[in-house]
Design goal:
266 residues, mainly beta, 15-stranded antiparallel sheet, 2 helices, globular
Length: 266
């Protein structure tokens, strides 16, 4: 399923909130370790993220699209090891096929990554199962398929100045509505973060996708900025990242977009 038309009349904008918070002053001392670990998807902390992916132009159409993500991550112990669970519930704005826009809940996704001992506390590596449930509030907003796959994450914070890594996922449908297209989708998110000091950093973390059913793909590249702010009981990470697709195939792939959000680690 491809992204589709977004409703430009939304009463609020997570990106506007992110841009406003980017201008907020940090506390006098933001620890360098906090700044380095604020973007670690495998950090040993509970995280609550409010993120938004706006796609301004889709190939072969005049449509745009929007997806707002509510994400929750939490470490836990099981089977004699350490794990990290991340759950994502999207709110999608897609075209309804009649020139209008359908907005509502999308498909719920969850993965649990087993955290391997890399021998280096600055390097995190996780691998585990992924499950997507057909929870969309409208047929146009989800796949209507149950999908199963895996998630693999690497984060290297050996340098206090530059951190890098990736998130690799794959999933394929195992059940669901017979009249809907099968899911066989891979996604690769390479990311890098360059610390500028005082909590500010540059970032690049666009998601590349490949559809094994249709051979459609998109390779966007992003360059944005963020700020890590130490609060009394949490670390807040605010960012905005414009993205441009350098290669694509198929209708409905993103030409350009903006990814932004506000993340909290507790």
């Amino acid at each position: 399923m491809t992204l589709s038309h977004a409703d430009t009349r939304r009463p609020w904008s997570p990106l506007a909130l992110a841009a406003t918070l980017l201008l907020a002053p940090a506390l006098p001392a933001v620890a360098q370790d906090n700044a380095a670990q604020a973007n670690n998807p495998l950090a040993d902390t509970t995280a609550l993220n409010f993120q938004n992916q706006y796609t301004g132009d889709l190939t072969g159409t005049d449509d745009d699209a929007n997806q707002f993500y509510l994400r929750y991550a939490r470490p836990f112990d099981a089977l004699g090891g350490n794990w990290l669970m991340r759950a994502t519930l999207p709110v999608n704005s897609f075209p309804d096929g009649t020139g209008g826009t359908e907005t509502g809940l999308g498909d719920f996704n969850i993965f649990a990554a087993y955290l391997f001992d890399t021998g280096n506390p600055a390097v995190s590596f996780g691998f585990g199962p992924q499950l997507t449930l057909p929870t969309a509030s409208d047929d146009a907003l989800g796949s209507e398929k149950w999908s199963l796959g895996f998630a693999n994450v690497l984060f290297n914070a050996s340098s206090p100045v530059f951190q890098w890594g990736y998130l690799l996922t794959w999933q394929a449908s195992i059940a669901g509505e017979d009249d809907r297209a099968d899911v066989n989708l891979g996604a690769f998110q390479p990311f890098g973060f360059y610390q500028l000091g005082a909590g500010w950093y540059l970032r690049s973390a666009a998601v590349w996708t490949y559809d094994f059913e249709t051979d459609a793909y998109a390779i966007p590249i992003g360059l944005g900025a963020g700020k890590v702010i130490r609060l009394e009981n949490a670390v807040m990470n605010v960012f905005v990242e414009p993205q441009y697709t350098v290669a694509h195939k198929g209708v409905g792939q993103p030409e350009w977009g903006v990814f932004g959000g506000v993340n909290f680690q507790f």
